[in-house]
Amino acid sequence: MRKHSLILILMTCFLFGASFPLNAQGVLLKKDIYVGATETQDNVITFGGEIIIEGRVRESVIAFGGSIVISGEVDNSVIGIGANITLHPSAIVRGDLVSIGGTLNRDPQAKIEGDTIFFETTEELWNSIKTALGGLFGLTLLPIILLIKVISLFVWLIIALLIALLFPRHVVNSSLEIRKNFWSVFGLGLLSIIIFAGLIILAAFLSIIIIGIPLLITLIFIGLAIKMFSRVVIYAFFGEVLTRAFGSKNPALILQVVLGFVFVSIVTFIPILGTLVALAFNIIGWGAVIKTRFGTRHLGD
């Protein structure tokens, strides 16, 4: 119970702390959001609340749980994670619509100009997952392992979407660098991780004397920043590969991140092989982030 309470507190602090930069970027983050017929917003996000769009949203609409009801216009993507999405006859979505683990009720007259991706989590699917994993982990440990995994995935998805909304150009630049110079990115990532691990060990030894403590703390924060940003870059990279494979010529970044998240989560969940794949993804992500200096360096610079 203490562990679960701590996780909820940390998530609340994270979201509260992120609200200021999000508002500065034109992102409306509330539980219940109503955009009236004469109103316009840039991005709207809710966690377990209700979003009602009668006016216009210039960018994306995102809901974790809760519901999305649209009778107005959305210029980019509509994404529901475990949310109930309803599109009225007058609804217009000029980007993509993604529904994962929720419901989708669309009037035939509603317009979706982009792609529609709908994954409904059924009881049969959940039972199949439990049956498949039961033989690997044992029935006693399975609920705990799944709970930890689900919480971890949920937190990473929130972080990924927030970073993609706040720094879209930087994420795109780093993702494109992977496609353009894969092996140089991989080599730089491997070298960077080795050097960083050495610095962490050195700082840990220096912590015996006071001078090493601030160095260790600084390295931890740097590593955490690289890890979070590089993970989003990996999501965007594989999401773009998937969307283009399905024929989408100009996929939205938010859609790329969501699809990449689903793909990476499934692949890395595979026992043993998933660990090796996750290591390779980390190396690639580190290389792309460092090579582009967190996406601030354009291709060809």
Q: Can you walk me through this structure?
A:
The protein is α/β, with parallel strands linked by helices. The chain has two domains: 2-119, no CATH class; 141-291, no CATH class. It has eight helices and 16 strands. Strands 1-4-7-10-13-16 form a six-stranded parallel sheet.
What is the mean predicted local confidence, pLDDT?
78
State the low-pLDDT regions, or none.
1-22
Largest sheet: 6 strands, parallel
Give the DSSP E fraction (strand runs of 2 or more residues).
15-25%
Order of helices and strands: HEEEEEEEEEEEEEEEEHHHHHHH
Task: Summarize the entry for a quick read.
This protein is an alpha/beta fold. The protein is built from eight helices and 16 strands. The strands form three sheets. The protein has a six-stranded parallel beta sheet with strand order 1-4-7-10-13-16. It has a five-stranded parallel beta sheet with strand order 2-5-8-11-14, with no helix packed on it.
Topology:
Elements: H1 2-24, E1 27-29, E2 33-35, E3 40-41, E4 43-47, E5 50-53, E6 56-57, E7 61-64, E8 67-70, E9 73-74, E10 78-81, E11 84-87, E12 92-93, E13 97-100, E14 103-106, E15 111-112, E16 116-119, H2 123-137, H3 142-166, H4 168-180, H5 182-206, H6 212-245, H7 253-268, H8 273-291
Parallel strand pairs: 1-4, 2-5, 3-6, 4-7, 5-8, 6-9, 7-10, 8-11, 9-12, 10-13, 11-14, 12-15, 13-16
Helix pairs in contact: 1-3, 3-6, 3-7, 4-5, 4-6, 4-8, 5-6, 5-8, 6-7, 6-8
